[in-house]
Write a structure and sequence with these properties.
0% of the residues lie in helices and 43% in strands. The protein is mostly beta strands. The protein has a 4-stranded antiparallel sheet, with no helix packed on it. A 4-stranded antiparallel sheet has the order 4-5-6-7, with no helix packed on it.
Length: 378
């Protein structure tokens, strides 16, 4: 993740830009574009540098604050911290509390953060009666980070019940250690593990590189630079990744629900669909479904979610995302992994760092300055 302010030096970056235009068709006439969904952003709370969020038990939404606290969103805003690891992490560079997730039964809560040494860490807590049980905490996985940027850190449970973990390429610039294409490291990868199947975790037997002695068994996909935010479509199970670019191109990657894994998204030989610094495109490169350049205000794609809520019918099935520097909320219309329309939804989340999906499919936009806003019908 990159985190910037327009008036000061760069300390980080994050998101992506996209849009959508719905189409309709009948047997008698060709497909024609429809008007984009009309939405508004309703501010529902203020947090301290919110970084991530997750749908929680009882229809709640849990919000992570980058300095190390987790708070629950209620009718009157955010409550007091239900978890505080602020003494165990730091916000220098692109570090901090970067991801949170519940398993399907809300029986366990997971956090992804960088510890005081900068090591990426995924910890687990048991949950009983909707409350974290601090004495059950255990560390599931760690990964040393050579630099303080490109930590990635997002975590989600897939439709298959396994935990997916996104790590950036290790940082600096231009992937100096070649981690993106190196299958012998977890950096620059999407991982897939079974956190309850072993100590500290088990490898799903159908992971793509289980039988490869030269690759890490945890790897699900590779060739990623900084997959700051990813999600699974609650309707189809498809995987979508917002991967922050180096200098010129921001990209959104896609994999169908029936993927067997092993996708190579190209970094650092490719930046989007473009060879990076004269490199050769890998033969197995899976190009992004959407990319945009940095000729405008965009600088860091913020991956979002396919909208599956009920409040905004015209938005259903569209992938909603943003960009950290641009802040505009956009949507992609997609069919079988092909983008068929792009739209600007006409709202701006400021310096957007994350989108969050609630239990009923409604979406929230988090701004680094503190805003927690719900996307509502206009």
């Amino acid at each position: 993740m990159k985190i910037r302010t327009r008036s000061s030096a760069i300390i980080g970056a994050i998101c992506l830009v996209a849009s959508l235009a719905l189409t309709t068709a009948s047997a008698d006439e060709p497909a024609a574009p429809r008007q984009a969904a009309k939405v508004t952003l309703k501010k529902v709370a203020t947090a301290q540098n919110p970084s991530a969020g997750a749908a929680g038990p009882g229809g709640t939404v849990w919000i992570a604050e980058r300095a190390g606290t987790v708070r629950v969103l209620g009718p009157k805003g955010l409550g007091g911290p239900v978890l505080d690891i602020s003494g165990e992490t730091t916000t220098d560079g692109e570090r901090g509390l970067l991801g949170v997730a519940f398993d399907k039964r809300f029986a366990h809560f997971y956090i992804s953060f960088t510890n005081l040494e900068g090591t990426s860490t995924v910890d687990e807590f048991a949950v009983r009666g909707g409350k974290i049980q601090p004495n059950t905490r255990r560390t599931v996985l760690t990964q040393t980070q050579p630099y303080s940027n490109h930590n990635g850190g997002d975590i989600k449970f897939g439709p298959d019940g396994y935990l997916y973990i996104a790590f950036g390429d290790g940082g600096a610039g231009g992937d100096p250690h070649g981690n993106g294409q190196n299958l012998d490291t977890l950096l620059g990868k999407m991982l897939r593990i079974d956190p309850r199947g072993g100590k500290p975790y088990a490898i799903p037997p159908d992971n793509p590189f289980v039988d490869d002695p030269d690759a890490r068994d945890e790897i699900w996909a590779y060739g990623l630079r900084n997959p700051w935010r990813f999600s699974f479509d609650a309707g189809t199970g498809d995987l979508l990744i917002g991967d922050v670019g180096q200098s010129d191109w921001e990209e959104i990657d896609w994999a169908p629900a029936d993927s067997k894994g092993g996708e190579n998204y190209g970094w650092s030989q490719m930046e989007g669909t473009h060879p990076f610094r004269g490199a050769t495109e890998p033969a197995n490169h899976v190009p992004p479904v959407h990319e945009y350049d940095r000729n405008g205000l965009g600088c860091s794609v913020i991956g979002g979610f396919v909208y599956r809520g009920k409040a905004i019918p015209n938005l259903k099935g569209q992938y909603v995302f943003s960009d950290y520097c641009d802040g505009t909320v956009r949507a992609l219309q997609m069919e079988n992994g092909t983008v068929t329309g792009v739209s600007d939804l006409g709202v701006n989340g400021g310096e957007t760092v994350s989108l969050v999906e609630g239990c009923k499919g409604e979406l929230y936009v988090l701004g680094i300055a503190g805003s927690v806003s719900r996307i509502d019908p206009a």
